[in-house]
Specification:
Blueprint lengths: L8 H10 L9 E5 L2 E7 L5 H9 L3 H8 L8 H8 L6 E7 L8 E11 L2 E8 L8 H15 L4 E7 L4 H9 L3 E6 L2 E7 L10
Parallel strand pairs: 5-6
Antiparallel strand pairs: 1-2, 2-3, 3-4, 4-5, 6-8, 7-8
Helix pairs in contact: 5-6
Length: 199
């Protein structure tokens, strides 16, 4: 997984200015498992919501996402998720509804590594796992990345956790998996990806 980069208070203020280019077309409503879920790019005001979401994850789920015990996110890690430019770095949130009463159930991000390659990582709340939320969020992230000229996604996952590998294969057959001890490096080559049906 990508590591958070150093952020200063000035960087966070600059990050708020980046949201003037908030890509409204990435705000979508999808039907999944009989439910209507909302997916949208992160906003500066989501910092506290994301922090509470991660604190609510089980130790196993948090470990699988961050590859280390992570009972809570540091300010630097939160800034990495929230301070995005929607081009080289994008974070998408999956929510149960639109508005202040909505519940955050998934967070996904891509970070550009080279002109056409980015690293992807996501996590779904324990109560919402195995319901297709991860695949939906990954597909939306892949579509956003493709819009920005990214054709290849990479991810490092735990070898003991086969779910991300199944998710990758569910998106496209063009998946390469390289085992490296306790982890697996996934490379997903797919110029186009199917996205969930919008409603």
């Amino acid at each position: 997984m990508f590591e958070p980069t150093a952020q200063t208070g000035h960087d966070l203020v600059a990050g708020e200015r980046l949201f003037r280019g908030h890509p409204l077309h990435r705000r979508v409503e999808v039907e999944l498992d009989g439910l209507r879920l909302h997916v949208r790019p992160v906003l500066p005001g989501d910092t506290g919501r994301i922090a509470r979401f991660v604190q609510g994850l089980s130790p196993t789920t948090a470990y699988r996402r961050f590859l280390a015990p992570t009972p809570r996110l540091t300010a630097r890690a939160l800034a990495t998720l929230v301070d995005v430019d929607h081009h080289d770095r994008e974070t998408l949130l999956a929510l149960t509804a639109d508005g202040p009463s909505s519940r955050l159930i998934g967070v996904g991000q891509y970070v550009r590594l080279t002109e056409a390659r980015a690293e992807i990582a996501l996590v779904v709340g324990d109560a919402w796992q195995r319901r297709g939320v991860g695949r939906m969020l990954a597909a939306q992230l892949a579509q956003a990345a493709a819009e920005e000229g990214i054709a290849e996604l990479t991810a490092t996952v735990l070898a003991e956790n086969p779910a991300p590998q199944r998710l990758a294969v569910g998106l496209t057959a063009a998946v390469e998996a390289v085992h490296a001890g306790t982890t697996v490096d996934l490379t997903i080559r797919c110029p186009t990806m199917a996205t969930p049906r919008q409603v």
